[in-house]
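Long-time lurker. I teach an intro course on protein structure, and each term I like to show students one example going from raw sequence to a predicted 3D structure in token notation. This year I'd like something fresh instead of my usual example. Would anyone be willing to generate the tokens for the chain below so I can use it in lecture? Attribution to the forum is fine with me.
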Amino acid sequence: MLRPTLVRLAHTYKPMMRFPDRKAPKEPHVPRPHPGAPQEIAENFDHYKKLHDSGPHFDPEKLVKYGGAESTTQGAPVAAEETSTIFDLPSRFWDTPALRWSPAEMEAINSGGSSMLDA
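-- Reply from a regular --
Happy to contribute to a lecture. Here you go:
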């Protein structure tokens, strides 16, 4: 055998991908600001974290309902720039080919799909 072949055969295969050692001790996770966070959040991260943890997304009772279809059914007034349904908007928003249903589609829905077996 030639020398380069012997050298090539002498080396064992070493994969390029390395996996972390699962048995190694893990350091505890310490929350810190993202490197791209705004400066005021990075400087006052503890205050921001406290505000975030006390936010309404952790307590459903603190959530505030706002305008839309739900508020009109409860009797809440709708502001002048708001609409209660999509059909209050100009027709270009709701009269589109994607929202129009053909008679065959309506029949399939009303029959639970059994009308599609006839075709």
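Some talking points for your students: The chain has a mean pLDDT of 78. The helical segments are 3-10, 39-43, 45-53, 69-73, 91-94, 103-110.
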